[in-house]
Amino acid sequence: xxxxxxxxxxxxxxxxxxxxxxxxxxxxxxxxxxxxxxxxxxxxxxxxxxxxxxxxxxxxxxxxxxxxxxxxxxxxxxxxxxxxxxxxxxxxxxxxxxxxxxxxxxxxxxxxxxxxxxxxxxxxxxxxxxxxxxxxxxxxxxxxxxxxxxxxxxxxxxxxxxxxxxxxxxxxxxxxxxxxxxxxxxxxxxxxxxxxxxxxxxxxxxxxxxxxxxxxxxxxxxxxxxxxxxxxxxxxxxxxxxxxxxxxxxxxxxxxxxxxxxxxxxxxxxxxxxxxxxxxxxxxxxxxxxxxxxxxxxxxxxxxxxxxxxxxxxxxxxxxxxxxxxxxxxxxxxxxxxxxxxxxxxxxxxxxxxxxxxxxxxxxxxxxxxxxxxxxxxxxxxxxxxxxxxxxxxxxxxxxxxxxxxxxxxxxxxxxxxxxxxxxxxxxxxxxxxxxxxxxxxxxxxxxxxxxxxxxxx
Length: 458
Prior knowledge:
This protein is mainly alpha-helical. It has helices spanning 13-33, 59-73, 76-89, 91-94, 102-105, 107-118, 126-145, 170-173, 175-182, 197-212, 257-274, 279-282, 288-308, 347-366, 370-387, 430-447, and strands spanning 43-45, 48-50, 147-151, 154-157, 165-167, 187-188, 194-195, 231-235, 240-245.
């Protein structure tokens, strides 16, 4: 991609204001038209949100979007709707033992509500605060219980595929463990064993950095620095990694770009969280220097890969190895084309990746690496300058989605393809819309010099 070094935060102000205006309209449209009996909204078909009976991993994004809308605009009705829906409909997600998505569902809802209270944006109420804290404590412990021990101090939170499966997605969902640990909670396991949630967070992060991210160090024939594997399959009998795999990407040896974006954002966010911990809390993991080193190595590698393997405007195609890309002449040397005849772009990957780039850039600048940090930060702004405008910003009043040209599951053929077209385009996803709102709020706060947005705000 071509990074625009001239972009300033203020340059995005008008686009972000327009985004929030459209966002409010979309949220109200969904509330008015969605058939809630069919499950959580996942992605749109001809502009209307539909459910997908797989896992309910997007419910928190729906209600969390209402809370972000309140945060950005101060419109009380969004707070009331988001809070009511969280209380009435999110409890099963707190105790869901079947998924690795707690950081998506519960930090987006209970976490946002607690953050708003901690920041003084909603009145402090002890009983209400304790309710949010209890939900986050339990969510983190339930997430941590989904554990595969590899021996030698290694292990990971396994995906819904089973104990053999490490997903790269989960690094961003680890915010549930971080929040629960921050609130002073532990996992009580068999025979009275007390398990540190920070320990599980650190071990999972290390395993993800070691196995899910590649560094160009000769691991296999496709070891390109910054590439990620959606899934790593382990032999659970002896703890050895057997092979990379994928559920939603093209192949184990190409890079599914939303998985890449989860790693970019997840590691950058965890670096920010680690900075809040005391040295003694990190001593068991080699100390602050060692912890920051492996996380920074993963964050910079993945962010560099995104910059190097994304079209000039910062919007990626859904997989770097998708076969139809060979038919797109010099596709990395021009803006992405969501209406081409060969392979779809994935705007949701761009929304997630932009936040990773911005957070990494901010983190590095704060640590004294100003020039390096500026490169990543400007890359993030460049992505948003494209994403927050047409043809990606959804301006049609009847379309329920906010960000167009998102892709859910290309291999399974779940995405809607318009009549006469060869590929899916023109649709939105609940995670893409949520993360567009989240990064828009992040930038808005920087523009107005408000408190820095994190999931762990006190």
